[in-house]
Amino acid sequence: MREELNVWEMTLSRLDRTMDILDLTPGVIKYLKEPRRILELSIPIKMDNGDIDLFKGYRVQHNTNRGPAKGGIRYHQDVTLDEIKALAMLMTWKCSLVNIPFGGAKGGIVVDPSKISIKELENLTRRYTYELLPFIGPEKDIPAPDVGTNAQIMSWIMDTYSVAKGYMVPGVVTGKPIELGGSQGRTEATSRGAVYTLLAALKVCNISASNLTVAVQGFGNVGSFAAKILFDLGFKIIALSDVTGAIYNKKGIDPYKLSDFIKTNALVSYPEAEKTDPDKFFETKCDILIPAALENQITANNAPFIKAKILAEGANAPTTPDADPALKENNIFVIPDVLCNSGGVTVSYFEWVQGNDAYFWSKRKVNLQLRDIMEKAFYEVYDFSLKRKLDMRDAALALAVGRVAEAMRLRGVYP
Ligand code: NAD
Which of 22, 137, 143, 266 has its CA at 20 to 30 Å from residue 286's CA atom? Predict the structure, then answer.
């Protein structure tokens, strides 16, 4: 499904709709559509068998008018430049929407990290970082984890950058382990932020937050913590899926037990749930649906069959533009990706601030500040959607893009 749909073209088509709402000039539109900088790298690695292999890597900095570029690094076999460009642009809008002083970036390497050894993974990460040295840094561009990367990989990036500088530079990446200047609460921040927006959505939709059922696609960082936080709040997690397949139990699935189980087994073989068809996952009868895997999952083909009341987009670009009309027609309240999953970059911002200040916050402070920012962003989008008679997705994008355009106007164009 992912190859058929070009996520860059879809991201641009969404931006076009926003331009109509904002009434921007053709020059500003042209500027906003193009990434500021694209790096395409061939990364040579000495493999364990003694031979050399070459990996394709990218870093795209979309827009830096509101601050240094910020965005994750993805290790996945299907990574393409178009995908990285789209995700970099989404980061610009996301940072703007939650009003943190960053622009947008994204990076990636075409690799299945599960198919190479730890040593090869470390070498690949360090060589990629070395190639990026002139372009990243706390004031320039700050990477973070995304699909296929984690705190260990961020540690290697930080170390490689710090060795080149001659001193430790914690602010060069976020999503680091706590022991190396990571922030309390960062690991689960994207999910916690998504839950804050979901609780606000339930309020504005007048849905009581008791006895609600949830289906989560993807059981990695975002999906597993979203399931756990909601489980702790009393929601019933009835369906889950990952790359191995999908499972269902109408009485509920304990995501903590499942997490333990998948340390040594495939999710799909979990004995306390029945195996279901992953292609019909979005048809699950539930109150809340959370896509938390990859992009292009909800399309015109499956959107008409969604039965959930709220769609909380934990993943980036999980919904294609041609799915939007069906969601609207079925009165599904959408918390769009740029809003729903912006808790991750928000706590990344906290981590960057803490690292630069060498002063670290308690988990309570992190979570309270996160809640303030997520709720403020949610209600800004919701109020704007009512005022301008827009759906939540158009409202979120218009607010975000408008702020970037205003920063551009105020800065002007050099020379
Ligand atoms: P991850 O690698 O930790 O987890 C991805 C999960 O998706 C895994 O469980 C994997 O098995 C599953 N998956 C892959 N293909 C699937 C398929 N076809 N069907 C069902 N499940 C499938 O990645 P993550 O960090 O949790 O990121 C998930 C999404 O959230 C991505 O779109 C990412 O860009 C976005 N996101 C992540 C963060 C973050 O802080 N990690 C922040 C914002 C947005």
Answer: 266
